[in-house]
Amino acid sequence: MDFLQFLLFFFFFFLTFISFCSSLNSDGISLLALKAAVSVDPTDSLANWVDSDAAPCHWAGISCNSEQLVTGIFLPNKSLTGYIPSELGAITSLRHLSLAGNNFSKPIPDRLFNAAGLLSVDLSHNSLTGPMPENVNSLGSLKLLDLSSNLLNGSLPESVINLTRFAGTLNLSHNRFTGEIPASYGRFPATVSLDLGYNNLTGKIPEVSYLINQGPTMFAGNPFLCGFPLQTQCSDPEAQNLNVLSDPNRPKDPGSFTGLSGKEKSGLGRVTVPLVAGVLVVIGVIISVSVWVYRKKWRFSGGKIGEKGKLEKGEVGEEEKVEGQDGKFVVMDEGFGLELEDLLRASAYVVGKGSNGIVYKVVVGRWAGMAAGAVVAVRRLSDGEGKWKVKEFEAEVQTIWKVKHSNIVRLRAYYYSDDEKLLVSDFISNGSLYSALHDKDGIGNPVLPLSWASRLKIAQGTARGLAHIHECSPRKYVHGSLRSSRILLNADLEPFISGFGINRLMPLVGSKNGSQKHNVAPNAPFSGQKVTQKCDVYSFGIVLMEVLTGRVPDSGDSNDGKGLEGVVRKAFRERRMLSEIIDPKLLEEVQAKKQVVAAFHIALNCTELDPEARPKMRMVSESLDRIKLH
């Protein structure tokens, strides 16, 4: 028996010994392999990962389903150093893996993708090496694969095209991939967001379906790539399609903040193109573009931001402004190190779309001295017919910025021009409350199971944030469109209210004829009337019912054709069993019955038909805070 065989024998003997001597289930043992592979844990993120537990479901960064099987590993930005063990692939119920922003090295183990039910894998901003595993095509339900900002090398694997149901984000940028882009990548559906930027790719970009419909951002930073949509012509005259730039049906660049790539010295002028020219579009929606778009792009390629080419102090507070030829970029917080150039060079991915605009996740790479890539959210407000002065827009943005609370998404900067209005805020990483409650994986389980303790914490935090909006000014601010999709969750399931102030801005950027309507509470009986704080209270009551029942608030078959408020109110009026309306996943927590009933009564008070009968949000918040976990 050679030394390697001896080590393998000893390792499996050790695992077997642990399984007999410990009550920990197999998923927990696999996770202990990750802990053993971590050599540096400066924040003690894995301190409570111990083999004396029966299951790892209460360990930091771990989420489980009702059967105590691990469904999520969330350990981003923990400064962990080590490698990723192949044992994680043995967690068959694993749906989400996020190890981004650490210092994991060595190759990605092939067996990691044995967890075939994975929906999202984020290993970005590490130091992973080697090729991308070919067996990635085994992840039939995959929606997000982010391997950006590593040291991966080798050729681009053709196996990813076999992910026939893939319709999300595939980010391979900022690595060391070499060779040509496989022509098979042209078969990706339009709903895929692909980023191959900043590698060492070579050759001509294949003029195939999906690839020819992309903008230059997807290929930027590969100096030896040529062909459309890059400006670099291929050395072989026959290899370049001379009719490309005059094609009036060439689609725009979807979901990107960067413009035409070029030499580094003139990069800034060119990256400003789509941001100020308004060519950000929803991923998967193909929009025609003409030569006018290219002319509009070149109109902004002056190679400098403004007259002085540097940041200037603003007139209000501690703002910093950059005024370009057609717009102004304003940083609201002095400690916020993002500059216009950082934003424009960033990769952007559509994460939401509504009647008031598109929301992008923007990865701005190295920023303000941070080693890992910083991420912000950028909301592009919908264009309208009205033309408003910058001072009017700035006054409203100032109002939004001044409303600061630990449960409200913080506005950091904005961009204003005649063509574009952008709001830059903190990016909250764990999705929305709506997704946590209603999104299911491939076998029908919630992608982010929420215990009663988590739901109560989310409700309490949301109530505090909304109460602060109502009380922070004598002008009696309102949110105006609170719903579960606008309550965002971080890795610790702390809630953040997003979208505050959007209804204040939409009349400014929308048409003045009133076509831009406020989005009042779901099923609100007073839609069409002026939005008041009592409407916010109603909206919160609906969200609270959604949290308690697990049902979508809209009318439909799932609610017997009635609004959620009517279903809950009828159940209490007829004194039905609590099990008929409560989320079945909460029934297992029998000790929470009295607490759940108390929360239902608060929700019913919030949704009274008479607005004057509804309590103030401060009272709602205090009532929820009185519900204590035992």
From TrEMBL:
Domain of life: Eukaryota
Membrane topology listed for this record: Single-pass membrane protein
Keyword check for Transferase: no
InterPro entries: Kinase-like_dom_sf (IPR011009), Leu-rich_rpt (IPR001611), LRR_dom_sf (IPR032675), LRR_N_plant-typ (IPR013210), PRK1-6/SRF4-like (IPR046959), Prot_kinase_dom (IPR000719), Ser-Thr/Tyr_kinase_cat_dom (IPR001245)
GO MF terms held by the record: ATP binding; protein kinase activity
PANTHER family the UniProt entry points to: LEUCINE-RICH REPEAT RECEPTOR-LIKE PROTEIN KINASE PXC1, RECEPTOR PROTEIN KINASE-LIKE PROTEIN ZAR1
Protein's name in the database: Protein kinase domain-containing protein
